[in-house]
């Protein structure tokens, strides 16, 4: 691939005069390389020497160099034949004419260089060297490409001065467009380059995946809801206004202004002077009523105490019956809330027993208090009537009432789903008439609306529901087109995927494609590399945006100063249809959480620039990026085979066919469908390692990469726990889940599995951290937003991890799993690594018969090396023949008594 930046530098150098080329490029270049004295000799008396350079070497020796500059080479306007004779003469003079040193001595140059801003042809090099071999000395060539290479290494600021501002910002360093981290992780020297095969794509916004648009029917309910003013303001800001903007329909039965007018009218009545007076009257009545009730309860308590005392000590008291009946009447008054009938009954009791007279005669008894209670009960009856009247008149603080326009929203959603299906089908069929920008905009809008309805509303499940459409079951969401087609349409896109899904490779291939096409309007920025070069100890006034701009400047070998930031801003503002690729957002976020704010601010400032971002998925901050997300899906089987064929196309095409046939025969295509695992497979085959009969080696490499090896090669540290602890924790969790026949569990359940595992000897806090880091950044535990649980993704991954725990934890008794269909996959993976013939004897001793384990054992044999299989099959056959003749095939093998401690 032609390096566009190199061509720009060459053209800039070739415009210089020869003497300027010598004085302003070659002279400072040699000075930067450690030459302590570089003198310009250009002119009529140069004797073939434009520059004389000196350098000190060990043992007090000074070496001298002569440099002749000549604008000669490929694409130069000067005829090589015309100047060749003169050039040869000048270069021979360099070898024969001595150089006078500063101390007066004269020396013959130790080395002679020919410098040119052009690329010097091989033919010319051969001619010069053929004629200029004197005393075994040859002229060394410093042509344009080599000069640029040396300047980049020793004096990059000179290159900056060569180009215009637009040239600098439009120049892409091709060395950045190679997935160095991936190649290091795979122990390879070369990248994949232009393998023309892509994985399918899926879209999402927030937590909503586009597959729901293919097989779901959405329903929003028409129920009425009442909320406080504060909750309404939140609802209006996060739900109502975005929904109205995105759908361009009125999402509620009444618009927000009408709802607020009604509320404000009701609120005005609530805060009116009249209503406040009523409230004060209610409070006063409540206080009086509460005082009366309190007094009556105290008297009841005194009466009960006195009655108990008289009864316990069998004392004579003529008023005992009256006291007992008074307690009953008083309690009835309280329980009936002073209803008129109860008060009348109490009055009848008072009059019939002449309690008023008795109270006067027994002033020191409790009878006067009974009379007082009767008066307060009558007063309370009137107060209760008045209180009910006041409450009827009082207007409580109103709530805002709203209901969704369910029919309109349901229609909008279902029409969008149908449109998405039509577009996907058309694009996948190769229809190039589909407006991709419109398609992406529509998809983003639909997913945004669903994200709002699912994630932004309080108690959304009470309002919004989804059901799977039966006739759409089995429809696979996958946009089968090159991601480049999406990138070309100027839509902002965030590229997501798991580790090794091909995010970086895809973006770098796209940037290289644009460079090949001569498109200089792209800036590719690998965030993790350049964030390390930015001084993060900025003063507090420095904005996150400035740090982002500084990274772009550093990637262009420019100082991150205010003057250069302003130049970059001016360049970006004047450009249309330019693209900036921010690769590795998740890695940068660890060290610089402000990166998201910086990118969002950048987009607002330069809305003419298309942004492409990459990140691992399942990170907590995705919803903060308001870009349409595309997920790189696993390869289909056809895409996998195309990938393998492309890998070996120029190396060993026959080997690719052997690999493909082995994959088909061993049925392991499902576990090598990401570019990373497919690359691992090709890497093993290329190194002469046969495709293993087991998947374990590939999975083990995958696990190590996800738990930190990949990050190690990137020189970043995103996990607090060591790789070994995270790997061990993944084994324990997978085994616990498999033991409970679980495919998914909540985060707290996963933590509990680790805490309760006696062989995971770490503090509870470490258990919690391990689960957190296996979720993010390791991306081993995958979140399902529908069930709000975590899983290992593909069941095969869980089976692999569970098999490793079986292999490493010798305290686990394996034999009872042999008759369980659920465990067959894990046991086959276990068999890939472990010789298992001893299990046949142990199983027979425990259960007296081998039959319940036969299916699993025979499958396990298939995963052992071929040379073992015949022996194992014979062993199984012999155990089967020796089974107890009285074995009852209907015997229930119940292991419900057994506990694994989980």
Automatic annotation (TrEMBL):
Question: InterPro entries in the record, alphabetically?
Answer: NACHT_NTPase (IPR007111), P-loop_NTPase (IPR027417)
Could you identify this protein by its name? NACHT domain-containing protein
In this chain the NACHT domain maps to 491-588
Q: Which PROSITE patterns match?
A: NACHT (PS50837)
Species whose genome carries this gene: Leclercia tamurae
